[in-house]
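User: Here's a structure from my thesis project, written as structure tokens. My advisor, Dr. K., wants to see whether a designed sequence matches the one we expressed. Can you design one independently, without my sequence as a hint?
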């Protein structure tokens, strides 16, 4: 464990150096404990792969006192303190018009398109944290066979809902944004909705599975999402 000041309003708590389920679980558990204990002066917490950024009000608590309070919680930061994980099913259309990199990615991986889709949709992904844009999940759990370097030249615009892979990660673009992931398909669900009671669909610690759908199903679900009548399948 290492504490690093992040300006005069935050501290970064580093719990490891590698990207792993174990380290990220400790990060999420520490965040949960800080929130449950209501540590004095804490304003916001932001988890990453292996560290937790803690924003605080220096008028309410000093840097050293905050670090000491957090250090007391670290030994308790284990899987046992976390609430049950959610499993979220996301419909995904692997149509080549929506998954505009699908054929190129399959060629790069030397796989038939159908096999790439099968491998991608057959995996279960862990949401490590949300970042880059509102609601965008950083996920791992991808089969090693479809690990692929990110695009050499990132595109300037990627449509929201685009499901992509790059390196060992899978991600879903929550809003239109630049990006360097290979786009295999698209989900009709909104990962970020500023007007919803819960603006982001996914949370750190969620387990995500993709359900392949046809283009007709994609269009039908898109309509129900726009009408705010669609309910994602979320289980504990």
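Assistant: Designed independently from the structure alone:
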């Amino acid at each position: 464990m290492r504490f690093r000041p992040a300006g005069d309003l935050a501290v970064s708590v580093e719990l490891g150096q590698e990207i792993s389920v174990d380290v990220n679980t400790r990060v999420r558990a520490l965040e949960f404990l800080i929130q449950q204990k209501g540590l004095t002066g804490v304003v916001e917490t932001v988890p990453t792969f292996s560290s937790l950024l803690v924003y605080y009000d220096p008028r309410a608590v000093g840097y050293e006192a905050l670090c000491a309070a957090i250090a007391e919680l670290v030994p308790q930061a284990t899987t046992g303190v976390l609430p049950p994980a959610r499993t979220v099913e996301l419909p995904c259309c692997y149509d080549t018009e929506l998954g505009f990199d699908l054929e190129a990615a399959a060629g790069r991986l030397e796989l038939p398109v159908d096999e790439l889709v099968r491998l991608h949709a057959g995996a279960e992904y862990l949401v490590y944290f949300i970042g880059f844009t509102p609601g965008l999940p950083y996920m791992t759990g991808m089969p090693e066979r479809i690990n692929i370097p990110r695009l050499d030249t990132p595109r300037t615009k990627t449509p929201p809902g685009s499901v992509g892979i790059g390196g060992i990660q899978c991600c879903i673009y929550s809003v239109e944004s630049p990006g360097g992931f290979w786009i295999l398909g698209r989900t009709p669900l909104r990962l970020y909705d500023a007007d919803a009671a819960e603006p982001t669909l996914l949370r750190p610690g969620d387990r995500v599975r993709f359900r392949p759908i046809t283009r007709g199903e994609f269009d039908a679900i898109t309509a129900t999402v726009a009408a705010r009548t669609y309910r994602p399948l979320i289980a504990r």
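When you compare it with your expressed construct, this may help: The chain has two domains: 2-80, 87-235.
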